[in-house]
Amino acid sequence: MNHTYNPYDNVLKVVSEAANILGYTDSDIEALKYPERELKVAIPVRMDDGSTKVFEGYRIQHSTSRGPAKGGIRFHPDVNLDEVKALAAWMTFKCAVVNIPYGGGKGGVVCDPNKLTEDEIRAITRRFTAAIAPLIGPEQDIPAPDVGTNAAVMGWMMDTYSMLKGHCVHGVVTGKPIELGGALGRSEATGRGVMFTTKNVLKKLDIDPKNTTVAIQGMGNVGSITAKLLHREGMEVVAVSDVSGGIYKESGLNIPDILDYLSQNRKNLLTGYEEDGMTRISNAELLELDVKVLIPAALENQINDSNAERVRADIIVEAANGPIASEADDILAEKGILVVPDILANAGGVVVSYFEWVQNIQSVSWTEETVNEKLKNIMDPAFEAVWDIAHKNKGTLRTGAYLIAVKRVVEAKKARAIWP
Ligand SMILES: NC(=O)C1=CN([C@@H]2O[C@H](COP(=O)(O)OP(=O)(O)OC[C@H]3O[C@@H](n4cnc5c(N)ncnc54)[C@H](O)[C@@H]3O)[C@@H](O)[C@H]2O)C=CC1
Ligand SMILES: O=C(O)CCC(=O)C(=O)O
Questions:
Q1: One biological-process term from Gene Ontology (predicted)?
Q2: Residue % of the chain over a pLDDT of 70
């Protein structure tokens, strides 16, 4: 692992590169280097054993130039200020690349949900929501699920915020339970977007999905739905992993069986799963498999200067945020590995969050078919636009995505005359 990794520096580097190509001056992008608001909170919680524990939490709004801040809440032991700043900034550019009217935000609590009871998670959620309540709201900043959080957590957030306001506020969070105004299709949306993106890139390269081997790191919301949908499209998912390690089968894993197992044994992870012909591998080994498509769907900094040389996939679709450290980008490009960047590949989640918010504001509800169709109608043109601009500039798809996104954000700032 590279010890100097700072995800926020990674974001600034790629933003500066894109701004240079676009001909923007340092002043044009100076404000983008600073999150608009950073809130750090202490969350005292009575634990099940009667003790009191204080957890640390953050909500950061990187930009609200194009609309309210938007982005998930992460519950994970490694949450820290630089990580949340980076995740918030990625949201700004993600919302811009798919052109939805949001800025970027992100939040997190330093805790390990795998070691907490449901009561403890709910208590953390309620106290955290109360602590960040001055910052959030349907017109200001709209949280959603991320690593370690889910629809239930969003339901508790919505309830806590609504209690403070004295009335039901559906639009304060997205990714809620359907009963509370959650959008049909939101729980699958990020994985569905990754599936559309993977199919789009295979089509560009004239590769038949049926002859495509795939390895997926992370079997949470994003990884598991991606596995399900790519398997359904006829791709051969040969390896999957989670925090407990991975499994590999050359002829393709039985994905429906694995998903079934995980839905009943979520906390046991993949460790207890068995299938004829499979072998156990580490997460590090999964990343170095000789597959057509590698899909990191867990955390940041999984591919860096310590392992990029050994990556053998032809294509990497970044389902996680920031899985490739910037120094590894250059190594992968030299090796001829095509990388589809996170801000494009995993944007399906926030796009359907946007649909959820639109439905909440209008008090209407769309069918799942409508949601999925509208999602495709945003993801496919966004992919085409990134592909075209990257090829015109003879650059990577990451640079292409940032050329589009940075321009939209800077032009919005200029139009608002945010600086003189
Ligand atoms: N949930 C969403 O809608 C969106 C999530 N993302 C990103 O996708 C990634 C995954 O998020 P979710 O699936 O929502 O989280 P999740 O909490 O549902 O799942 C995370 C998965 O990663 C695994 N994992 C955790 N630490 C690991 C490690 N050190 N090595 C290997 N695997 C590890 C976990 O065991 C689990 O399978 C994150 O980068 C997140 O920011 C991006 C866009 C939207
Ligand atoms: O659905 C959302 O609002 C944001 C999801 C998210 O956190 C992400 O795209 O990284």
A1: L-glutamate catabolic process
A2: 98
Active site residue 106: yes
**Ligand 1 pocket residue status of 299, Cβ below 6 Å:** yes
Residue 116 is given by DSSP the state S
Q: What is the pLDDT of residue 3?
A: 53
pLDDT for residue 4: 79
- CA-190 nearest atom, ligand 2: 9
Q: At what angle do helices 186-204 and 368-392 cross, to 10 degrees?
A: 40
Residues 6+ apart with CB under 8 A from 221: 145, 150, 187, 190, 191
Check residue 2 and give its pLDDT. Answer: 47
Which tokens go with 123? 């208590």
Task: Please give the distance, rounded to the nearest whole angstrom, from the Cα atom of residue 88 to the centre of ligand 2.
Answer: 9
| pLDDT, tens digit, 9 for 90 and up, residues 335-352 | 999 999 999 999 999 999
Tell me what percent of the residues of the chain surpass a pLDDT of 90. 95
Please tell me the residue having the least CA distance from ligand 2 atom 9: 350
Model pTM score = 0.97
**Average pLDDT value for residue range 266-275:** 84
Tell me the C-alpha to C-alpha distance, in Å, between residue 13 and each of 17, 87, 153.
Answer: 6, 14, 34
Can you tell me which residue has the tokens 């990674």? 10
Query: Ligand 2 within 6 A of 181 CB?
Result: no
Please state the atom number of ligand 1 nearest to the C-alpha of residue 222.
13
- The residue contributing the CA closest to ligand 1 atom 27 is 243
CA dist., res. 76 & res. 82, Å (int): 14
Q: Which pLDDT band, with edges at 50, 70 and 90, does 191 fall under? A: very high
pLDDT tens for each residue of 225-254: 999 999 999 999 999 999 999 999 999 999
Pair 115, 140: CB distance under 8 Å: no
pLDDT range class, residue 420, cuts 50, 70, 90 = low
Give the three-state DSSP class for 359.
helix
Q: Give phi and psi for 286, each to the nearest 5.
A: -55, -45
Show the domains of the chain with their CATH numbers: 7-185 (3.40.50.10860)
**Residues 53, 85, 106, 335: which is the catalytic one?**
106
- Is 341 near ligand 1, meaning CB less than 6 Å away? no
Q: Is the CB of 297 under 6 A from ligand 1?
A: yes
Q: How far is the CA of 364 from the centre of ligand 1 (A)?
A: 30
